[in-house]
Structures are given as structure tokens and as C-alpha cells.
Amino acid sequence: MSTLIAHSSILIIAVTLATAFLTPLVGIASKRARNTLIVLALAFVAFLVVALARDVMLNQIHVYTLGAAAPDLTIPGGAIVPVRIILEVDGLSAFMGIVIAIVSLVAVIYSMSALKTETGQNGFYTLLLLMAAGMFGMVFTGDLFNLFVFLEITSISGAALIAFRTKFADSQEGGFKYIVVSAVASLMILFAIGLLYSQYNLLNIGALAATMEYTMLDRIALVILMSAFVMKLGGVPLHMWLSDTYSVAPASIPALLIVASQASLYALLRTSFTLYGVTLDQSVAGWIIIIVGLLSMFVGVTMAILQTDITRLIAYNCVCESGFMLVGLGVGLAVLADPGALDAFGTMAMNGAVFHMINHALFEGLLFLVAGAIFYRIGTRDLNQMCGLGHTMKLTSVLFLLGALASAGIPPFNGFASKILIYESVYQFNPILTMIGILVSILTLAVFMKVFFSAFTGASLPRYRDVREVPRPMVAAMIVLAAGIIFFGLFPGLVLDWIVQPATDALVNQGAYIDAIMGAVP
Q1: Torsion over CA of 19, 50, 266 and 134, rounded to 10 degrees?
Q2: Closest Cα partner for 363 from 407, 418, 401, 397?
Q3: pLDDT tens readout for residues 391-450
Q4: Residue 405 located in a structural domain
Q5: Average pLDDT, the chain
Q6: pLDDT confidence band for 329 (50 / 70 / 90)
Q7: Alpha-carbon gap, residue 238 to 299, rounded angstroms
């Protein structure tokens, strides 16, 4: 078992990639064998992620190296920098790995029924696994260039998945927009990496953090990196593409796209706290993130009010919920320079933001799966054409209501557990921010109540009276996310202690990440 844990970080990526390439070969012989292979592989990966996370919590940062057996570069000051491919998993990386593993497995189970009649399933599952592997690589890698490579894998596979249903013109448009935005963001990231590499001859995040002099080129690189990651995250004002892509993808894919956006948020955090945290003016950067978060909250919820397409409405709610995370993390970064203030409320704000990341993946993923279930049965996303579905799709209606209440921050669901942390801590920083957050949550509740009453209540339309519940695998996938929503809402203390607090500590403790790679600089 110890050997398995020691190699777990690379095995998680390797098993996912290997399964992706085996899927079309096995699928030619048997669809059932292919489905069994995928589910077993992702279940094994989820087991490895949990084991790795437990090891990180008990034994601190996990470092795994590929390539050269020994470092071959010494930087000024005598510190030795490993020049090879490195995976470095701390509390934040392990936290993100758990989110990716859960949502990927749920998406596969849901898709096996939702896409049962579609052609090209072998390619679909290969792309899904490649996307999962890319996300694992993004959160596990220890150097910037490999972050770029894994981001490219995630983006290309994600664009293909969005455009998978070629019979729909809007799917092609959505996939094209996603790949264009991803290409622009990737080029920006590659240019910023080039600026850093040209100065320090380093790509390793820990080594760069230890040697960075915060020159003008470093500042330019920071602005470029933050802009690119905010673009991939879908934060305002770079959010225009998000609703056009999330709303047209196959039902299970938006849940994965949410996690992909959070992987970009992870990269933003790794850049802000770890790479630049040693020399960064935290107050300025924190306020920039706070402003982006506030704009995302306001624009997301106001645009959601106007939508009649249920998936576009949920997509705009994703923009809104991302704003809560950005505000909490921005407050934490803004007070990072003052350890006393951080102990008082900065850590709580960051805990709430990190907690909201997994909560967002759960309740927003559930809402997208419910929207997919509705489309699966009645063939439309238009709320004006829905009525009385709750009579024949009782479980689906209950699950939608659960996800909606969690998104609005209503107790005792998980959205309340993370939002209350953000409200309480941000209030001490600036009460106006909390007031805006509460107002946005009220509007979110109003938006989803409109959807619930439009789609599930009232008399059933004649053409929908024979509609029945979706197949069991789709229901099972939705129930898994619903169970997480309820558990995280009822037992937030366990989640905070076991996975959220270690993730926050990893952000604040920049020295631990640096020392795990290269040791303390004399």
C-alpha cells in the first residue's frame, strides 16, 4: 500500500490516460466491457485520490519526480533546483483532485444512459477521460510549462465534448467559441511563462517563487497570467463565452466544465499565493480579485433573471457563484500582509471560498444534470414550453429544488455552509461586500423559484402526460451529488477540518511548497 501511495500522483494521471486510449479499442469489441472498464478505472482513480489526500494531510506535501535522478542546477544562494518533470501535491492540490475525481465518475455514470442512443460514444468517453487527465495534471504539476500543457489537453478535449452532438448547430458554435477563448488564454499564459523563463531560466514554481525579484517584467507576467486564468474561469468581464458553451454541451459535460473552470481558479490561486506571494503587494492584487468577484456576482445573477433557456440560466448562475469564491479569496489575499488580520478573519474568508469551490461543483453540477434530464425526456430547454413536469418526474423535481436551495445559500444545504463563512468574514473586512452577497443570494433564490414553478408545477401539458422519470443510472448520478450537498451541509465541520483547512493552509504557507521542492535557501 505504501508503494501505491508513493506513486499515486503519477498513477492517477497515467491510469486515466491509459483508459482513454484503451476505451475505443475495448468499445469495438463490447460496449458493456467498455463501460465497465471506464467505471472501474475512474473508481480506482478516485480511491488513489482519496489515499493521496490522506497521505498529504498526514505527511505534508507529496513530491514525485520523473526524468533525471538528481538535480543539475544550482541557483544563487546555493539552493539546488530539480530540473525535471515534477508533480507536487499539497493540501490545495489534493482538494482539487477530490473534486475532479467525484465529478468525473458521476459524469460517466450519467452519460452511459443519457447518451445511450448517440453515435460516437467511444470517442466521447476518450475525450472525457482526456479532459479528466488534463485537469488532474493541472492541479498536480509543479512547474509552469506542464501547467500550460495540461491546460491545453483540458481545453482541446473540452471543446470537442461541447461540439460532440454535431446534429445541433449551436453545439458547433459553442465548441468553436470555447476553443477560441482557450487558445487566446493559452497563448497569454505561454507568453507570460516566456517572460519569466527569460529572466530566471526556471520553470519550477517553487524555484521561481524563491528567486523572483518582482521586476517590471514579472509584474507584466502577473497581469497576463491573472487575465488568462480569469478568462478561463469565466469571470466578468471575460465571461461572454460561458453561457454559449455550457448551455449546448451534452448534459454531463457542463459539470466537468465547471471543474475545469475551478482548475483555472486553482492556477490563479497558485500564481497569486505561491508564485508571487513572496514578493507580491497582496492588498492591490486582493482588491483586483474582489472587484472581479463582485462584477461576476452582479452580472451573473442579473443575466440569469432574463433567461428562458434553463441551461443558459444555470450557466449564468455559474458566473455568479464564481464571484463568491473570488471575493472570499480576494479578501484573504488583501489581508495576507497582516498576519494578525489573517488570523482574525482572512483565513475564514479563504476557508469559505475554498469550501464553496467543492460546493459549487456539487450543486451546480446537480442543476445541470437535472436540466439534462428534462431535455432527455421532452427535447427542449425552453422554460416557456415546460409545465407540470413535477407530476411525472417527481424525483427530478425534488433534486432540482435541492440544488436550487443550495445555490441560494439556504440552510441546511452545503451552499449555506460555505456562504455563511464568506459573509461573516468579509463583513469584518468591508460590510458592504457582505450586503451585496446577501442581496445576490436572494436574487438567486428568486431566479430558481421562477424556474421551479415554470417547469415542475401547474397542470401537465397534454404532450407531457406520458413523460416518465429518467433511467436509473442518470438518477443515481444525480443522487450522488445530492447526497454530497446534504452531507456537506449537515456536517460542515468535518469537511472543513479534513479537506478545506489543509487546502487553505497550503495557500498561506508558501514556504512549505518551496521547501518541498528545493529546500530552504541558506
Answers
A1: -10
A2: 407
A3: 888 999 999 999 999 999 999 999 999 999 999 988 888 899 999 999 999 999 999 998
A4: yes
A5: 87
A6: confident
A7: 11
Distance separating alpha carbons of residues 477 and 330, to the nearest angstrom: 33
Tens digits of residue pLDDT in 14-44: 999 999 999 999 999 889 999 999 999 999 9
| Kind and range of the H or E run holding 65 | strand 62-66
Q: Does 69 reside within a domain?
A: no
Residue 307 lies in a domain: yes
Q: If phi over 0 gives left and psi between -120 and 50 gives alpha, with beta otherwise, what is residue 430?
A: beta
What is the span of the domain harbouring residue 292?
Answer: 281-490
Distances (CA, A) of 261 to 96, 180, 356, 376: 11, 15, 14, 25
Buried b (16+ CB within 10 A) or exposed e, 188-218: bbbebbebbeebbebbbbbbbbbbbeeeeeb
Say which residue the cell 421532452 belongs to: 378
Asked whether residue 471 is assigned to any structural domain, the reply reads yes
pLDDT digits (tens, 9 = 90+) for 211-242: 888 889 988 998 899 899 988 988 788 788 88
* Element at 74 (helix H, strand E): strand 73-74
Q: In total, how many domains does the chain have?
A: 1
Angle between helices 472-490 and 414-429 (to 10 degrees): 40
Q: What is the mean pLDDT of residues 40-52?
A: 95
Residue 127 burial (CB count, 10 A): 22
In 201-309, alpha helices (H): 205-211, 216-233, 242-246, 253-269, 282-305
